[in-house]
Amino acid sequence: MLKYRTVNIVATLLILIAAVANYIIGSTPWTIGVIAICWLLLTVIGSFHVRWNYHINHYNKNGLTKRDIVSITFDDGPNPDFTPQIISILKKYKAKATFFCVGEQVKKHPEILKKIISEGHTIGNHTYSHAKNFGFFSTNKVVDELNRTNTIVKEITGLNMKMYRPVYGVTNPHIKKALKTTKHHPVGWSIRSLDTTGISSNAVYSRITTRINKGDIILLHDTNLKTIEVLERLLLFLTQKGIQSVSVDSLLKINAYDN
What we know:
By secondary structure, this protein is α/β, with parallel strands linked by helices. Helix content is 49%, strand content 11%. It is built from ten helices and eight strands. The strands form two sheets. Strands 1, 2, 3, 6, 7 and 8 form a six-stranded parallel sheet that branches. A two-stranded parallel sheet has the order 4-5. Helix 7 links the parallel strand 4 (163-164) and strand 5 (185-186). The protein is globular. It starts with a helix and ends in a 7-residue tail after the last helix.
């Protein structure tokens, strides 16, 4: 898979070669512009596709597991309308999941966070604000967002979260530097359900079930009714296939919290 550093090196070399060629033999000067545009496109696309691991190596799945397990994950909560329903459905099917929580939401609904933990699920950091311009934050501001959320969660539960889920799947060099400081495990996904888009619940369900394999990490959101509708059908499907949903730290064999 393409990497930011590799693309930068190749693009720089090609630009130098094109510049020298233009100086010596008078080749077309727009070649440099084409190379620069290609570099920009790759970098933009790579920054928005967490599975590329373009800037950061994420845990996107466990392709080596021999067990019939997957991990269902939920972003953007806790949500007072939908998270409790999701917890109940998970309990009905004896499934475990991981909730990547937003600090502002945790602050508003600490009792729901405690319920998630008490039911045997794990939690991870999904920043404090979930800002739409998070990809433009400085390294220090990213560090502050992650630390702020960790502090709030620790005050409520006593747990120091080690897992991080990128907002909108966006990564960049600033976020990479921030994670080196905070020491969070970056957790991505292998199946993006698109449950927050305009597609129907049937389309979301089909998108997941036609792609799913053992070791997959499924991205859902505990913020809308569509997810509730899909989740029950998905867990029934997994049960029929003999596949178990476990927390993402169990799937990946990493620590969810500091000891």
